[in-house]
Design goal:
Elements (H helix, E strand, L loop, with lengths): L9 H41 L5 H16 L3 H21 L8 H17 L5 E4 L4 E6 L19 H17 L4 E6 L6 E7 L4
Helix pairs in contact: 1-3, 3-4, 3-5
């Protein structure tokens, strides 16, 4: 059997790479259409200025196309949103037989041990907090980046590959009762730091 396709991580890595390729192509197509959309927006604005009595049906049709322009996000945003939905569901399946997690720290420890092992294949290497609502989760061999050459060469390119896992973490935390913003940083591949910023309760 080919070593490339062996191991439990292969199906996920293959699917993840295909999702990223699809989203990048989708973004390129969207950029190609941007000139056309800009012209349509200009024409629409001119029509609105020159004809304030425009028919309601025509106005509704044009408003739909304008809304569509603002709904579209970039590839990283869509990957993060997809990860969010998956993380939200996964945490229920993983935590269903565990006792209720009460404190924020208990939830973060669960995320770094049981959840991380089930989803990413190993526990995190380090969890730090400043006790002011910011946690840093460090994984020195994050499995998505293990196929990249080690070092600083592909640090910038790794960002899009981390949007999906950031979404998974944010979705899992939200389902555990923690509203947060999750970002990632890479200094040397494959080590990743996930920064979890807890939303302040008002």
């Amino acid at each position: 059997m080919n070593a490339l396709v062996s191991g439990p991580c292969f199906p996920f890595e293959f699917l993840h790479a295909e999702i990223i390729r699809y989203e990048k192509q989708r973004e390129i197509k969207a950029n190609d259409l941007e000139v056309e959309r800009t012209d349509k927006r200009k024409n629409w604005i001119e029509q609105m200025r020159s004809n304030p009595q425009m028919e309601v049906s025509l106005l509704d049709e044009q408003l739909k196309s304008v809304k569509q322009l603002f709904i579209q996000g970039n590839a990283e945003t869509r990957l993060e949103a997809l990860g969010y939905r998956i993380g939200f569901v996964l945490v229920e399946k993983i935590a269903k037989d565990l006792p209720r997690l009460i404190t924020e720290l208990e939830r973060m420890k669960f995320l770094c041990k049981e959840f991380w092992t089930a989803v990413f294949g190993r526990q995190v290497d380090n969890l730090r907090t400043n006790h002011q609502g910011i946690y840093v989760v460090q994984d020195n061999k994050f499995f998505i980046l293990t196929s990249f050459p080690e070092g600083k060469q592909y640090v910038e390119e790794s960002a899009i590959y981390l949007a999906f896992p950031c979404g998974i973490i944010r979705g899992a935390l939200y389902n555990l009762g923690i509203t947060s913003l999750v970002t990632s940083s890479v200094e040397n591949v494959p080590a990743v730091k996930f920064h979890v910023h807890m939303q302040q309760k008002s």
